[in-house]
Every structure is written in C-alpha cells, then in structure tokens.
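Memo to structure team: turn this sequence into structure tokens by end of day. - J.P.
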Amino acid sequence: MPEIEAFRGLRYDLGHVGSLSDVVAPPYDVIGPDLQDELYKRHPANIIRLELNRAEPGDSSDSRYARAAQFLRNWRSEGVLASEPDPALYVYHQEFNHGGRQFTRRGFMARVRLERFGEGNIYPHEETMSGPKQDRLLLTTACKANLSQVFGLYPDPDERTQLLLERAIAGVPPREATDHLGVVHRLWPVSDVAVISAVSGQMTAKPIFIADGHHRYETACNYRDQVAAGGKLPPGHPANFVLMMCVGMSDEGMIVLPTHRLFRGLPSISSGQLAAKLGECFTTRIAGKGLDQAAAVWDEIEMEDDQGTLGLYTAADKTWTLATIAEHGRQRMAQVAAEHSPAWRELGVSLLHRLIIDTLLASPELPKPRYVHLVEEVVESLKADATGEFPLAALVMPATVAHVETISKLGERMPAKSTYFYPKLLSGLVINPLE
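Reply from structure team:
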C-alpha cells in the first residue's frame, strides 16, 4: 500500500531570489529551446539550470549533469536554497482558466515509498521510453535529488484527505508564483505532526494512479536500485521514496486536454482514398474543406463525446473527414489488438494508432508524429507545412480520468500521449533531497 512521508524540502529563499515566479519552470519535457533560453535569462538561479541544463560548446556526454549538480551545491551553500526547518507535506493549489471558467486544482506534495509497477498499489497508464529514463537517471545520480514531482491521482470522492490539509492552511499566506501561461501556483508547508499522521493514515488504503511523470517514477525506482547495489539500503533512506504531487481524482481541476496528431512519413492521400482504406471499419463523411473548418469539426467531435469518432485531415485535398467506428471496425480491432482489454481497444488513441495507422493504412513504423493540444496548433502547423511533411492530421478525444483508473487496474498501458493533464505542475517549488 502507498506510504506517504513528510520531508524537509529544499525551497528558494525569497530574500536571495526576489520573486518566486522568476525561478520556477515547467517540467523538462514541455520545454523547447526558446523557452529554455527565456528561463535562463529570467534569473541566474532559475531551476532550468538544474532541470534542463543546456549544452555548451566543448561539452562531454555528462557535462550538463555535472553542471546542474554544481549549481545545486552552490545554491545550497550560498543559501539560495534552504532546507525546511521541520518535515512537512506541501499543499499545492493551481488556479487557472479553461474554456472561459476559473478552476482551482488542489493537492499536496509528499515523499511516496517506491513500488515497482505491478508489485503494489501504484499504477502507470502510459508507456515509457528508454531515452528519457536514461537522461533523468544521469541527472538524479549527479544531483541526488528529485528536482520535480511525479503527478499521482488517488480516489478521494468526499475530499476527506485534502480537507484535512485545507483546514491546516486556513488563513496562512502561501508562497505564490505565476507561470508563463498565466497559471497561479500557491504552496503551503504543513508540519503539524497530527495532520501529517492523519493524511498518511488515510492514504495507506488508497491506490495511486500516475497521471504524469512515468519516466520520473521509473527513474526513481532505477536510482533506488542503483544506490542499493552498493549495500543494504535502510528502509528510511530517501532513495526509497519519490517526490509526488497527490490529487484526488474527483477534484474539479482535473482537466484532461486532447493530444492531436500530425503524422509524418505517410504517402500523400486524398479523402476519397482514405475513406476507401477505412472501408467497412468506419462510417465516414466529409465534414468540411479547408483548414478554417478545423474548429467546427472539433466542436462536433466534442459534442458527440465518443472515443470512436475522429477528425482526419488529408492535406492532398485539404479535406476534413469525420470517421466513426463501425461494428466491423470493432471486430477488426478485437483481432488486431487481441492482447488488450475492451476498455483499451475503445480508446480513440488506440483506434487511431492500432487500427487506422498500423492496420488499415499499413504504416506501423512511422516516425513520431507531432503532438499538439489545441486545434489552433493543428491549423498553424499545417499552414506552415510548405514541404508536405504532414500528409495526415488527426483530431482525437482525450482519455479520461476514469479510463486511466480502469485501464491501469487491468495492468495495461495506453498509447503514448493519451492524456495531457492541464495545467502542468511547476518545477522549483520544492526539491526532495535524496541523501
């Protein structure tokens, strides 16, 4: 069962850095070169220098990690980063706008005892790749710290666990930062031993589902095994734990955005040719001509709210096709994905990749598609595509929190980029030392 533990986190001393907004950053995996440069310029102690240290001329393979570790040592010795006086849980709120409404996502950060996936009550929902895990392991080994948190979901329908913490912070001013997207992040340490004990006791009986940070979680397990290889690891050693943000699955701020695809490597195809290839597996109809119809197509998909309906754009004739899975398609999917559960086979991203791309278009070895979250980004990418890099684009419904729970409990993992939990958690609010 998940074991929750308070810890003495490392936090920025605002007397040294001024504004917390200047030193925090999004997670490493959503930071492109332009944002990386912007964060470097924002403040000399921005967490980007640890989380995603940039390459410099003459670097060896491990220079970036060694530089990050040196920054961390310097900032600790200079007092830029200071340890919490007492072990604490960290209540974390994110206030943001989505669809014209204001939301607040509420959770808390803690150390969570590591369990290998499949061996306990912590469940993944997406596949991982070796490259990011190797990168994060080298960084963790150099810095001996969790620089950012894994995002975990747990069942808390009555918000009992979170309310324990909300009462503890009532009337207490938070640390506050605003990110580059305008999301407001607030943090409160809670060091009351009775509150910590109560939260820990409630969490012990609950499963945790990894929403985001699968690579970081598996890296934490690999780091623990690496440390343990040097001798027996005491149960209380920090390497047995990982920094995790825990959010109730019923929280009003649990917003899951779609991840649309722009496919590379396919031959040019018209809407007529696409419909012929989809055959009896899908019912198809032309939903519009031209990129200016993208928003209307997505509105129709969202209104239907059906995982089996996808919007497909063929660049050859600038046409949107609305494709809805038919009974013959469900039967074909059951054949080509027989190793998976019906719940997995019904996901829009599963139908798109396993049935349409891999099987009906016979293109299982395509390069990684471009992933975007807004319809406007799909349109912008296609407008800028002067060389025909993206012959096919797909608008696809996101998997839901309920899908995450169901499929995770079955021991399965969704295709990559099945979910995008918005907004992202900030790096730099609190660091978990592993020494």
